[in-house]
Amino acid sequence: MTAAAAAKVSGANERVRLGVIGCGGRGRYVARWLREAGAEILAAADVYVPNAERLKGESGGRCDVHQDFRRLLEQTDIDAVLVATPDHWHAGAAVAACAAGKHVYLEKPFAYSIREGRAVVEAAKRFSRIVQPGMQHRSAEHFRECESIVREGGIGRVHFVRAWNWVNMTPGGIGKPEPGEPPAGLDWDMYCGPAPLVPFDRRRFLGTYRWFRDYSGGYITDFGTHRLDTVQQILGVSAPRTVSAAGARYALQDAGEMPDVLIVTCQYDDFVLQYEGINLNGLGLGLRSPGMQYYNARGPLDRPNGMAFYGTEGTLLADRVGYEILPELAPGAPPPETAARFRVERRSRNVRDATREHAAAFLEAVRGLRPAPADAETGHRSTSVAHLGNISYQTGLKLKWDAAREDFDGQPEASRLLGRTPRRGWEWATGETLLRG
């Protein structure tokens, strides 16, 4: 993994030669936009070979297939990699890629733990590689517009923010356990990697692995990371001072382990953020406006994902495909049924998901045309907020977070959850030991 760097992209017109590590649904989706933006996919790696073969078929032309991504990283004809593995492999693959001289598009969440995320940041610095987190909100024009609105006082002073992800998974959740033999083409031992080696269960694989702590942080690290990142972007912050969480697994009776209700409260210097991860109801905020489209809305009333910035002059409601400003009544204004007067103008906008733009931005950064829209430090800091919520939930503590040290003040039981002891023989797969080596 410490071999000499691969040949660099020499100019703006050069085609970026790409390898894909993790070829499931998300990996193939992002790879599609990378191809459209000018990448040539030369290799695909997945512990489940049929996934890699499927990406090869979609990519056309030459595309080598590997089951062990380390073989992909040995290819000197690859400039950059897309890492879209399950979460517990993000850091190991990203650090190894940096050490092999490859730039990295790293899907969210940035890493499985706070310590592993820091290892990725340090690898990007040590090997002078671009590591762009797959937080496509950073490439969304409407969120940059929201940032300007809030920073310039367009809705007044903001001291409370709400972010939410709601979905009704009742009654069956992800389904009951499905034990059995691993399917043909799957290296189950490597799939588990630094996580404990357990008997194969279909629910721990592919689309439902995020419901198990061995591989993920659940709903808050999966979906919540995007919203938490956008809140920090818009308000210009990088870490809360305290974090507390409440929740439980109340109703879902399935194979998963994560809470079906999780509420996390983060105290920043100048505002309070509340995150809601709810799996028992799909309404979310509700409050629909005629003519507006809402991200992942399934019915006429729900508003299942988004952020609300509550200002003294108005409220900015935003999600992945748009935003709207709902003004506060002016001081002394008459009741709404008469000629209401408001503090700011009502406005709205709809857009599309920015994954396409985010993929193109990565390639432009690799070519040296402009900086990436988000760097490794940003991805790590935003994902850390989600990890802090999980640590508070697991310990029952109100956490006192020292962002400079990336540790807690006098809370050793929480400090123990900043990382994990990897399975013997797979220590390198967290990225930490590989970086030290």
Report the helical percentage.
25-40%
Shape label: globular
Straight-line distance between termini:
10 Å
Tally of separate helices: 12
Q: Can you tell me the CATH class of the largest domain?
A: Alpha Beta
CATH-defined fold name of the largest domain: Dihydrodipicolinate Reductase, domain 2
Category by helix and strand content: alpha/beta
Mean pLDDT across every amino acid position: 94
Cα radius of gyration in angstroms: 22 Å
Report the CATH architecture of the largest domain: 2-Layer Sandwich
Instruction: Tell me the major beta sheet.
Output: 11 strands, mixed
Say how many strands there are.
Answer: 17
CATH homologous superfamily (4th level) name of the largest domain? Dihydrodipicolinate Reductase, domain 2
Regions with little confidence, pLDDT below 50 for 5+ residues: 1-7
Could you spell the SSE succession in H and E letters?
EHEHEHEHEHEHEHHEEEEEEEEHHEEHH
* Domain tally: 2
The multimeric state of the shown protein is single chain
Query: Which percent range describes the beta-strand content?
Result: 15-25%
Task: Please give a structural write-up.
- This protein has 437 residues and is an alpha/beta fold.
- It has 2 domains: 159 residues, NAD(P)-binding Rossmann-like Domain (Rossmann fold, 3-Layer(aba) Sandwich), CATH 3.40.50; 212 residues, 2-Layer Sandwich (Dihydrodipicolinate Reductase, domain 2).
- Helix content is 29%, strand content 21%.
- The protein contains 12 helices and 17 strands.
- The strands form 2 sheets. Strands 7, 8, 9, 10, 11, 12, 13, 14, 15, 16 and 17 form an 11-stranded mixed sheet that branches. Strands 3-2-1-4-5-6 form a 6-stranded parallel sheet, with helices on both faces.
- It is globular.
- It starts with 15 loop residues before the first strand and ends with a helix.
- The relative contact order is 0.17.
